[in-house]
mannose-6-phosphate isomerase
Amino acid sequence: MDAEFNHHSHHGPLLRLRCSVQKYDWGKTGTDSQVARLFSLNSGSKIEVDRPYAELWMGTHESGPSFLLDAGMENGASIGSQCITLKEWIAKNPNVLGDKVFNKWGSDLPFLFKVLSVAKALSIQAHPDKELAKMLHKLQPDVYKDDNHKPEMALAITEFEALCGFISLKELKGVLHNVPEIVELIGRTEANQVLNMNEQDGEEKVKSLLRSIFTQLMSAGKEITTKVISKLKSRLHMESQVRELADKEWLVLKLEKQYPADIGIISAFFFNYVKLNPGEALYLGANEPHAYLYGDCIECMATSDNVVRAGLTPKHRDIQTLCSMLTYKQGFPEILKGFPLSPYITRYLPPFDEFEVDSCILPRGASTVFPAVPGPSIFVITAGEGRMRTASSKEVVSEGDVLFAPANIEITITTASELHLYRAGVNSRFFHIL
């Protein structure tokens, strides 16, 4: 290897990060998990074959901090590799954020970057908007740990499945016709109100009826829930002998195996079942219901970990809060396919100021440039190896490496093999670049 290429350069602007992993029980297990493979390469730790590895966190959130691998301090004194978090370092060097980011969000990264490996469904959840987050954090700081909102985006690495947002009125009528168990839970009167409603009744009226039946469904008692789910299960098993079950019906049977007798199983009928191909992304605003179901994805969000849960979970549920906070917007979510920024870079631009994500697949012998931007970036290498060069430094990078790049730095990337990486940064629309 050329002597000029440092694995650890103390003078360069790019900072290597050692990241945190979350072993939530819905994660893929051991070496099946891309999160486990990346974490193991990133941290030099062995993969525990029987443990779930759910999320790799890259950023400054206290619940999963990133540490500087070798902090080249301005005076040349290097601090021990475990000591300093990216958050502490940024607080001491806020100029790395660029003025505009610092003025809006203070001396912290406005986004949190993650890789997820999902083996079984996450809880049906929503993330509060700013107003609600402030209130929940004040009332229950042990459950709602910060006062920020959490818009997010998931970009599929493998095929990726999710439940997300409410189905249209037309589809909802279909559900009430075809799923007698739901009618049993919400009552014939409510069901008829939906069946007799049409788009001419106006969006607000439809929303308020949807809110009322969804709240009723989610608040159903344990006993009736167990009974109705058992009916649903045996009906679907019987019908599968004589007809092809719909995707949503297979999903419901799968969820029943994962979370027996959980009201979330029934609520799945109310949500859009979204299947992303690799390279497609889904974004979620505040107060939109969703549950990731299966697959690996790159996720980016505002720096928050606030979650209001109501189903498919053994964890704390807050059904009243969830049901009252949702927007009850209906219809299929927008799928982002990204747009080419340059031949090898695809950009995903959600309608949120805090973040955007770039995907870069660099073939053998190719090179590309990430132009200087007025805000900070985090890069994660997910496959292959290559070199990242700035005006003052060169780094050899390979799978599992995570790097922080300060504002206003142009980065050239080359590879002799093939290189896959993702970049998270502040949304370019925020800087009026696009």
